[in-house]
Amino acid sequence: MRKLSIIAIALFMQTISAQVNRFVYQVTMKPEAANKNDIKTENAYLDISSEKSLFYSENRLKRDSIIQSNVQNGGMRGFNREQMEGVRSNINYTVEKDKANQKTYFKDRLGRDMYSYEEERPLNWKISSETTKIGDYKVQKAETDFAGRKWTAWFTTDLPYQDGPYKFGGLPGLIVKIEDSQGDYSFDLMKNYKIEEFPTLSQFGNTLKVKRTDFVKQQEKFKADPMAFMTQGGSGRPGGIGGLMRIGGVRQGGGSGGGNQNPADMRKMMEERIKEEAKKNTNPIELQ
């Protein structure tokens, strides 16, 4: 009986440690430098296990679900463009932190490919003795300079995690709130709950592992001429949007019945959207 009790406890502890804890942050952004009154707000998830954490947009999961549903129901012919508009996101990247190796990996899409790099810039925190309370948590103040911005964070030791949203972490507790000195970006913890496992995020195109400096160069190329970037496949290799993006073997179109649209019209529509999005992303979270 004693052996059975020990086994039961061990299995219970294994189940608990295998669970993923989801922290929901409200992300407030001012992505357009010329129009700071244009404030974007959306939720993002920080999923944490004993091995890693993953930060990504809530709308990413919703968008994946819509696409998957359409693919399972015969492709994109009945694709509802308005439905996808409702889950558009300003957080198109993911940030994964490997706890065992103390590594942080950033992924973002440029054109038709996903680019991935390891973040090698350390976060040097200055921890203050100042404390306050945010919601149910007693929090302590810390400051750091990162990627051209000065950040103020409030972390709590009430929760057994040393992590935070985006690339932030390394404090002796979980970051409950963090904001840059200009008030352009802020992350506020709203709630948390447990989930069974990390979600599988859909990914289209190739994943290119690069250095951060190379990613920045490719990003500048994309901003300067997104259509040329996509036509050349970013790194100079041929390919791109001539054949349009394919999802589940079906060309991705615009509105309902998009698969029957004229390819030239679809290309023009895509070009206009990409240019418009590039114009509105002139105040990125990383300035350097």
TrEMBL record:
Keywords: Signal. Residues 1-18 form the signal peptide. InterPro entries: GLPGLI (IPR005901). Pfam families: Porph_ging. It comes from the Bacteria. This is GLPGLI family protein. It comes from Chryseobacterium fistulae. The lineage of its organism: Bacteria, Pseudomonadati, Bacteroidota, Flavobacteriia, Flavobacteriales.
